[in-house]
Q: What sequence folds into this?
């Protein structure tokens, strides 16, 4: 696979790169940067609702398609690299990612100051807005799980409850259509009335679609559960398994593993500092505009979670366009790609699960001669 060969070259070329990044970053055409995002300053401590929505709108591209809904990840082994990542990735910077909830687990571990989730599907914006409302409306993890799956909260759960204890308690509770309808109304009201986000009818329908799948499938929701989730083969892990998984050494690190992880996410969402952006990794605007916004405020990208998007870019002949895009980001030697690849074979590394890895972003820029001037 060509991606693997690039990784080897990248590791060799990393030490040679350190003086080149700033020159390539400067090659971003200002015409690709929305006017609303220009201006000097520092990374914000919080954003107003109007700033939040204007930034999402200004950074985003038109929505595209993917082969599945991707309402939940299938990366059961993603926590295995977190202990090493915490020694490499610097906190207090900007995290970029793609997809749904797996980002929350990495965010809770890496403690960024600001987050941009870039996904070609507008449906991912709907998923992220659903989560935003639920984080803000929930007092604690048990309350959050109750709302996420439309299940009445069992008695006896508290801040000391483990993820396994939480999900074991909810396993005996039936999902409630009444709670689903009440919670959906609360989510929509929170987004459109409390925040006053100008969501279209299609956006509200999209949020309803996402939330219905969480109600209908409950903690058994998998990557392939929803009507559009047929984009792969294998026995996909469910939501509960992802939340109670550990790092391979016995420590559970999901965003629902403990109160600290959950509260970090809740605070980030409450401050409007997690922004779902609609954009193609090989598109002309989203990544470059995010990079300019961060750079103009003196920020650096700490980590960029790719999932396995690279394989689709490779298949479509678009990897080098993406390469030109990430070459424009404000980076240093600790800026890190987090990515996934199929485990293949069988047993622990088989099925529909992906294995997680990481590598320095600047190494890719140098080894692959990423041209920041390349635009699709």
A:
């Amino acid at each position: 696979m060509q991606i693997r060969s690039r990784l080897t070259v990248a590791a060799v070329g990393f030490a040679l790169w350190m003086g080149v990044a700033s020159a390539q970053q400067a090659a971003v055409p200002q015409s690709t940067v929305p006017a609303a995002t220009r201006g000097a300053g520092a990374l914000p401590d919080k954003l107003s609702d109007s700033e939040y929505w204007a930034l999402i709108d200004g950074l985003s591209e038109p929505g595209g398609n993917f082969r599945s809904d991707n309402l939940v990840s299938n990366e059961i082994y993603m926590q295995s690299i977190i202990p090493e990542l915490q020694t490499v990735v610097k906190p207090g910077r900007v995290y970029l990612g793609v997809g749904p909830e797996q980002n929350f687990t990495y965010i809770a571990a890496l403690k960024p100051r600001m987050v941009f989730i870039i996904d070609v599907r507008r449906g991912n914006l709907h998923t992220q807005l659903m989560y935003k409302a639920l984080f803000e409306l929930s007092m604690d993890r048990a309350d959050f799980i109750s709302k996420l799956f439309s299940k009445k909260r069992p008695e006896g759960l508290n801040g000391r409850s483990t993820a396994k204890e939480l999900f074991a308690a909810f396993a005996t509770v039936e999902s409630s259509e009444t709670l689903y309808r009440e919670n959906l109304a609360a989510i929509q009201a929170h987004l459109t009335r409390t925040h006053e986000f100008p969501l279209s009818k299609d956006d509200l329908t999209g949020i309803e679609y996402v939330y219905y799948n969480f109600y209908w499938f409950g903690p058994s929701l998998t990557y392939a559960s929803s009507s559009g989730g047929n984009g792969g083969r294998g026995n996909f892990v469910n939501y509960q398994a992802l939340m109670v998984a550990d790092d391979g050494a016995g420590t559970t690190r999901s965003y629902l593993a403990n109160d600290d992880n959950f509260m970090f996410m809740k605070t980030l969402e409450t401050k409007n500092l997690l922004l779902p952006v609609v954009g193609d990794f090989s598109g002309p605007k989203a990544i470059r505009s995010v990079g300019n916004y961060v750079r103009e405020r003196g920020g650096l990208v700490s980590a960029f979670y790719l999932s396995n998007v690279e394989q689709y870019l490779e298949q479509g002949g678009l990897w080098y366009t993406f390469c030109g895009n990430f070459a424009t980001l404000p980076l240093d030697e600790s800026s890190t790609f987090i990515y996934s690849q199929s485990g293949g074979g069988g047993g622990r590394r088989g099925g529909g699960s992906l294995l997680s890895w990481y590598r320095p972003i600047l190494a890719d820029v140098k080894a692959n001669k990423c041209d920041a001037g390349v635009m699709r």
